[in-house]
Amino acid sequence: MSLLVVGSVAFDDLETPFGRREHALGGSATYFSLSASRFHPVRMVAVVGEDFGPEQMRVFSGRPIDLGGLSKVKGLSFHWKGAYGYDLNEAKTLATDLNVFADFKPDLPEAYRESQYLFLGNIDPVLQLDVVRQMAKRPRWIALDTMNYWIRGARPALEAVLKEVDILLVNDAEVRELTHEHSLLKAYRKIQALGPRILVVKRGEYGMALFTPEGHFAAPAYPLENVFDPTGAGDTFAGGFLGYLAWIERTDVTALKHASLVGSVMASFTVEQFSTERLEQITQDEVRNRLALFSDMIRVEDL
């Protein structure tokens, strides 16, 4: 089985109340791949510039991440600068330099076009749809992330690609922007009408909510004593969630519930340090132990 991600690889300048980092590795495809590859091999399609060197490539080495679709072109890599206050759920964007990402047009290697699972990271929906059309045959499932910028500014293109999607992963504000509904249950019905049968709402420190035709599920975030940097937590969640589903080759409601816990646990590691620092260090035993603790924490015994 093969899991393909199309998204961004970037450099981030980060500032939170607990410290700062400059020129730190970031990007949706980066966080997704480091998380998903704990459970299933990943193929990555993204673009970087000449400033992306051996030190950054080292982060992916030794992991089941196929970089055959990572293009290196003349220019500088995508760069984002952001700051967080004590409300770590909201980032203030200080600078966005698209650089080589401005001309990014995903061209899937021939072998990637047979991938059975596809995650479309937060990029222009026109490009997301083009990726779907490049596939040799329809994947077993297609998952998508988007943001308010595309919901407001490229809605026709977004609705076109949503018709092809099975799983939509967005946050509270994005699902409400997309559906004009405050109630997530009402919003889910409208999401179904647009195409996706599964909705995952990423709620940051408040956890997540899952909506499927067979039932709904919600879980808190894994409780932590120290949170340093929430950047990439949503993409890490998506990587754990979808990597687990690809591993077990199931998308029934029980599998989706388990995948939600896996995604939450993986995101909890990311926020404990800056950038990808913690994701690079964790062991399989740490993942298993934290998942067991989390599962036990939310379990309710019969009265």
UniProtKB/TrEMBL annotation:
Known InterPro entries for this protein? Carboh/pur_kinase_PfkB_CS (IPR002173), PfkB_dom (IPR011611), Ribokinase-like (IPR029056)
Q: What GO molecular function annotations does the UniProt record carry, in alphabetical order?
A: kinase activity
Domain called Carbohydrate kinase PfkB: residue spans: 40-267
- Pfam families, per the entry: PfkB (PF00294)
Against SUPFAM superfamilies, the record matches this protein to:
Ribokinase-like (SSF53613)
Keyword terms: Kinase, Transferase
Name the record gives this protein: Adenosine kinase
Organism annotation = Geothrix oryzae
